[in-house]
From TrEMBL:
Species, as recorded: Halalkalibacter krulwichiae
Gene Ontology BP term (one): L-proline catabolic process to L-glutamate
SUPFAM superfamilies on file: FAD-linked oxidoreductase
Name recorded for this polypeptide: proline dehydrogenase
Cofactor: FAD
List of residues binding FAD: 136, 164, 186-188, 200, 225-226
A UniProt-annotated Pfam family: Pro_dh
Length: 306
């Protein structure tokens, strides 16, 4: 079973990087069960979904999806879409933040160009009193991501990032970013053994360590996990150490573990849903299938129910 899971993960991760299939997916529309985990292709469809989630007691963060951004024109377009998303959130009054990927904003083209695009987004976010979370991508882009974050934090306190627990240096990064709102996750990319743990038990152990460290530092902590065992341990730790519920939240992906999301809301915990949208959904969807073999069955059920 373990060998099958590794094959499945590698297979779907390789598909996520296929540019030809990505182009084709834009023509197909939200097929292959993707509509269950992607909130439409437009800002209007996303706002409708977020509003529905808000009505269920769920907060949101939205991500305008984008893959293979290789030109400044594409990066400027993505920047424009992020700004339009912030404007739509403000106009509609939904309770929602914005998540961004720096590669979509030109990180692979030029760091300074990417930073300028982020500054444009941050100006609008500050105007509307909203928060922007910079998603962490693969390890090769971590240093540049943290450098851009540091530059932004000189002028804006409404921006944070994500730390991935499977990286050896995750604990050091959490200590360095003490006091900053962070989303802490296990990690979604396929990283080499030279930089990341490969064993689930070791990843889980480090994940709990960095969550506890950030909480004990008095920092706002978003726990991005669908793992009920981890969630139960975080709740137990918070209760034992007198950490108020206002200092942390749980985050899950749109379309996954909706039963657990509702349960946490019913128990009085802050629950935020990560809501992706946009025409460029293919790469995101393939990575979700790669994360857990169960997700393949989930997607197929959605496809067959259409």
């Amino acid at each position: 079973m373990m060998a099958l899971e590794k094959i499945s993960r590698s297979f779907f991760l390789s598909l996520s990087k296929n540019k030809v299939l990505n182009i084709g997916a834009k023509k197909w529309g939200l097929g292959l069960g993707a509509s269950q985990v992607v909130a439409g292709t437009t800002i209007e469809s996303m706002i409708k979904t977020v509003s529905q989630l808000n009505n269920e007691g769920l907060l949101c963060t939205v991500d305008h999806l984008g893959e293979f951004v290789l030109s400044k024109e594409e990066a400027r377009y993505a920047t424009k879409k992020c700004i339009e998303t912030l404007e739509a959130i403000a106009t509609s009054g939904v309770n929602c933040q914005l998540s961004v990927k720096l590669t979509q904003l030109g990180l692979d083209i030029d760091d300074q160009f990417c930073l300028e695009n982020m500054k444009e987004i941050m100006k609008v976010a500050k105007k509307f009193h909203n928060f922007v979370q910079i998603d962490m991508e693969d390890y090769s882009r971590k240093k540049a991501t943290l450098e851009i974050l540091a530059a932004l934090r000189e002028s804006y306190d409404n921006v944070g990032t994500v730390i991935q627990a499977y990286l050896y240096d995750a604990e050091d990064d959490v200590e360095m970013l003490k006091g900053m709102p962070l989303r802490l996750v296990k990690g979604a990319y396929k990283e080499q053994e030279v930089v990341a743990f490969q064993d689930k038990a070791r990843i889980d152990n480090q994940y709990l360590r960095i969550i506890k460290k950030h909480l004990m530092n008095g920092s706002y902590t978003a726990i991005g996990s669908h793992d009920h065992v981890i969630i139960d341990k975080v709740i137990e730790f918070a209760n034992q150490n007198g950490i108020p519920r206002t200092q942390f939240e749980f985050q899950m992906l749109y379309g996954f573990r909706t039963d657990l999301q509702k349960d946490l809301v019913d128990k009085g915990y802050t629950m935020r849903v990560y809501v992706p949208f946009g025409e460029d959904w293919y790469g995101y969807f393939m990575r979700r299938l790669a994360e857990r073999p169960q997700n393949v069955t989930f997607a197929l059920k959605g496809l067959l129910s259409k």
